[in-house]
Amino acid sequence: MNVTSQYRAQQLGLLGLAPLVVFTLMALLDLCGGLAIQLSVLYSAALLSFCGGIHWGLSMRLPTSSDEQRRLTWSLLPIVAGFAILVVGHLVTLPYPVILMLSLLALFHLFWFNYERRKLSEHPWYLEMRARQTFTTVALHVVMIITHST
Question: Which UniProt keywords apply (predicted)?
Answer without folding.
Answer: Membrane, Transmembrane, Transmembrane helix
